[in-house]
Specification:
Keywords: Membrane, Transmembrane, Transmembrane helix
Structural class: mainly alpha
Number of domains: 2
Radius of gyration: 19 Å
Shape: elongated
Number of helices: 6
Largest sheet: none
Order of helices and strands: HHHHHH
Length: 184
């Protein structure tokens, strides 16, 4: 939810499913292709992850910010953009939506905190696998394994700071929205 780019909110439910699914499917299908050298495996991963991940992301977006479904794509995008930038929303009728979306981001951050230990454990396992692949695996396996380690390390190092900055901007936008609506 917190990593969903603002432009995806402009899309309807089906569009969000397709956009999120295609991104995950292409990315992880490419990993399978590099690691295993298998086009068939890459296609299977692409299809399965595109369907499941796209559906999961769209449902999570709907559950975390249910009021978004009653808004136009342009309004959702304006709210998301203002909130993520920490700015006042241009249209005063959208101020309450900024407050709701800021709350949704905080709920997403709370859920994210619960997964940090899992990411740490997976990173340790990925390092062990990458070392093993370096010694015993093919070049493709070694490259894929170390890329996974780098992505997991980036998640552990980069994401907490980025999340904190995003939440600080959301707090500023929410405070501005509350002022424009008289504190409600």
């Amino acid at each position: 939810m917190m990593l969903v780019p603002g432009w995806m909110w402009r899309l309807g439910t089906a569009g969000r499913r397709v956009a999120a699914g295609l991104a995950a499917g292409l990315f992880l299908g490419a990993f399978v292709l590099v690691e295993a050298g298998s086009w068939a495996g890459a296609v299977v991963v692409f299809v399965v992850l595109s369907l499941f991940h796209g559906t999961r992301v769209a449902r999570r977006m709907e559950n975390v910010w249910p009021a978004a479904e009653g808004m136009s794509g342009a309004d959702r995008t304006a709210v998301v953009r203002a909130t993520r930038r920490g700015e006042a929303v241009d249209d005063p009728r959208l101020a309450s939506s900024v407050v709701e979306y800021a709350r949704a981001l905080r709920r997403g951050a709370e859920e994210d905190r619960l997964r940090r230990r899992v990411v740490l454990l997976v990173t340790a396992l990925a390092v062990a696998l990458a070392v093993y692949d370096t010694v015993r695996g093919s070049t493709g396996q070694t490259i894929a394994s170390w890329l996974v380690v780098l992505l997991l390390l980036a998640d552990l190092v980069w994401w907490p700071r980025s999340r904190a900055r995003l939440l600080a901007r959301a707090d500023r936008a929410e405070a501005s929205a509350r002022r424009s609506t008289g504190g409600h």
